[in-house]
Amino acid sequence: MNNDDTPALDGVHHLKLPVGDIERSRSWYASRLGYVTVIEFTGNGRTTGITMAHPDGGPMIGFVLDSERARRASGFDYFAIGVPGRAELERLAARLTALGEEHAGVHFATIGWILPGTHDPDGHEVRFYTTGHHTPIPADGTPLVVDDPIGTEAERRRAHAARGTDEPGTARSSRSDDRP
């Protein structure tokens, strides 16, 4: 569904979150998710921001020192980090549990599997969602309508299980560019 007027975009360059303590966030994202610092911003002799990259394909994440905004943003899930499939999501859940992090467990969701309920040191909810989908997005450009998300997902889960498997395939969007 591309036309000549559509701008060329290429995924998410980076995410940025306000934090109350740069070193605390750097340590948490490194120890829990494997992120490494690739850029450090300083001013007046102190670190005011960092950008971290993931060695295995996760999005770059920037953190800017802003305690007031971090406090106001606490609790909201601004993004979901992609994970290839359910098995990898289950391993991540086990890792977070072993590190003492709370989460809501792996759940069947709209088009894939989700691991919600993990919070970073500033209270931002960090969600993880499979990039392999059990439910394809319609190829004809019409949106997938989800009425009553909890009830709809429960019904999809039952139908999925009735097909004889609890593990989704790796079906992705059926659009020509294969992006969800």
Instruction: Estimate nothing, just give the exact number of structural domains.
Output: 2
Strand order within the widest beta sheet: 1-4-3-2
Q: What CATH architecture of the largest domain do you see?
A: Roll
Mean pLDDT over the full residue set: 86
Could you list some keywords that capture this structure?
180 residues, globular, four-stranded mixed β-sheet, 8 strands, 2,3-Dihydroxybiphenyl 1,2-Dioxygenase, domain 1, alpha/beta
In summary, what is this structure?
By secondary structure, the protein is of the alpha/beta class. It contains 4 helices and 8 strands, in the order βαβββαβαβββα. The chain has a 4-stranded mixed beta sheet.
Characterization of this structure:
It contains 4 helices and 8 strands; from the N terminus they run E-H-E-E-E-H-E-H-E-E-E-H. It folds into 2 domains: 14-70, 2,3-Dihydroxybiphenyl 1,2-Dioxygenase, domain 1 (Roll), CATH 3.10.180; 74-166, 2,3-Dihydroxybiphenyl 1,2-Dioxygenase, domain 1 (Roll), CATH 3.10.180. It has 180 residues and is α/β, with parallel strands linked by helices. It starts with 13 loop residues before the first strand and ends in an 18-residue tail after the last helix. It has helices at residues 22-33, 67-73, 86-98, 149-162, and strands at 14-19, 36-43, 46-53, 60-65, 80-83, 107-108, 113-119, 125-130. A hairpin with a 6-residue loop joins strand 3 (46-53) and strand 4. The model is unreliable at 166-180 (pLDDT under 50).
